[in-house]
Amino acid sequence: MKNSAAPFNALGLAQENIADLESQLLKRKLRATHSPCDTKALVDGRKLKAFCSNDYLGLANHPKLIKALAEGAEKYGVGSGASHLISGHSMAHELLEQQLASFQKQHIPNAKALFFSTGYLANLTAITALAKLAPQGSASIYSAKLNHASLIDGVRLAAAQSKASVILFDHTEVDALNALLKNDSNPLKIIVIDGVFSMDGDLAPIKKLLLLAEQYDALLLVDDAHGFGVLGKHGHGILEQENVNSDRIIYIGTLGKAAGVGGAFVCAQESFIEWLIQKGRPFIYSTATPPAIAHTLSKSLEIIDSNEGGNRRAQLNKLIRIWQDEMHFAKWEKVPSCTAIQPVVLGSNANALHAAKLLDAAGYWIPAIRPPTVPQGSARLRITFSANHSETDLRQLIDTLNAIEKQVIDEETHE
How does pLDDT run across 61-87, given as a tens digit for each residue? Predict the structure, then answer.
């Protein structure tokens, strides 16, 4: 085997491209934690206050879920052994899907749910399979411009596989979407949108979009990754909060955020779910999630739907109100949000990285979010709250942010 000093072409290209990312301050780095997911984290041997996870209800380290996972492993083992359609579909999966469907039964007639190992797989499956309902080239997919990665990739894959037309729209300009739909003669139209936008924390105008879907005979696919468990009186998500009901809604929820465990699901009218089972390639050809995970999630849903879940949502909403009332910046931009996602936009990659470094030195874990995750020139700190944060935790963060912003402004003044 030849061993030369110079790298072969592909390796050289990889190294050059990584160096290019680093020069643009866009290189990402992994940080390994040595502690459970919670508001306090042990990272690189240091204790940090974490305001960056999506564990909104603080369930990821809940003793009842830890116990349920052990019970699930004891009852079902640690693996599923095959895809759902071969032999991997356990009674634990079946019971979980029934619970998930019951959460949305008031909002989707004849609702049925399908469980997936990740939200990415759920979105790829739902969008690509639904696009196959119409003959090739006769489907239109309307995708919100700020949708997150798995929705974008699902739309792209559907366009490649089914020759579907893809039209991007601004979710804050519903009238413009109305004009686009009005002139669309394709027999199948799908509006694809996040329920809660993950980098801004704002909500999709679900009621207005549903009216358009009904007017122009379209499907409305809502990925409520950051709303399930949090929004609505019982934590059932954005459909409960907005009090909508329609059999043309395709609802996708994530179970690794507010639910505290992992996986995702699609909930829709029974015929749509049956179609995903028949034509959803990521579902058909993926090994089923270990049934112990499904068993644990059933316990998580019980907590979400209980008084404890209500109390945790109340604590989360209290933190959101404190932030809105008490966090004031001199120059940095606080993005309006009624959710646990509270972005602070700093603009350049350098500014965001500098602020994140100062926060780290002060004992906080709040990474900088940069393009392509957010638009160019809108690098930010993405601050997220958990029900396990106390009011004291939050007010200490507010004081720290005010001090860091002042420090950064002073540095800029003296440059």
Answer: 999 999 999 999 999 999 999 999 999
Same domain, 314 and 244: no
Q: Report the Cα–Cα distance between both ends of the chain, in Å, rounded.
A: 54
Active-site residue among 148, 226, 236, 295?
A: 226
CATH number for the domain harbouring residue 297: 3.40.640.10
Active-site position among 257, 295, 299, 389? 257
Instruction: Answer yes or no: do 361 and 232 share one domain.
Output: no
pLDDT digits (tens, 9 = 90+) for 87-119: 999 999 999 999 999 999 999 999 999 999 999
62 is catalytic: no
Same domain, 261 and 366: no
Contacts of 23 (CB under 8 A, 6+ apart): none
Give the structural domain span for 366.
30-56+309-413
In a domain, 136, yes or no: yes
Radius of gyration of the chain (CA): 22
Domain co-membership, 156 together with 90 = yes
Active-site residue flag, 226: yes
Question: DSSP characters for 274-318?
Answer: HHHHHH-HHHHTSBPPPHHHHHHHHHHHHHHTSHHHHHHHHHHHH
Same domain, yes or no, for 346 and 286? Answer: no
Let me know the angle formed at the C-alpha of 146 by 135 and 17, rounded to the nearest 5 degrees.
Answer: 95
Side chain identity at 197, as an amino acid letter? F
Q: Is 279 a catalytic residue?
A: no
Q: How far apart are CA 211 and CA 62, in angstroms?
A: 40
| Residue of 140, 198, 300, 386 marked active site | 198
Q: What are phi and psi of 112, to 5 degrees?
A: -140, 150
Q: What is the domain count for the chain?
A: 2
> Taking a C-beta distance cutoff of 8 angstroms, is the pair 49, 395 a contact?
no
Q: Answer yes or no: do 217 and 101 share one domain.
A: yes
Angle (nearest 5°) at CA 260 between 296 and 267: 75
Beta carbons within 8 Å of 283's beta carbon, 6+ residues apart: 84, 114, 116, 121, 125, 276, 277
pLDDT for 225-261, tens place per residue?
Answer: 999 999 999 999 999 999 999 999 999 999 999 999 9
CATH number of the domain that 346 lies in? 3.90.1150.10
Which residue stretches of 132-205 are H helix?
A: 149-162, 174-182
Angstrom distance (rounded) from CA 320 to CA 317: 5
**Do residue 203 and residue 229 come from a single domain?**
yes
Q: Are residues 299 and 334 in the same domain?
A: no
8 Å CB contact between 141 and 159: yes
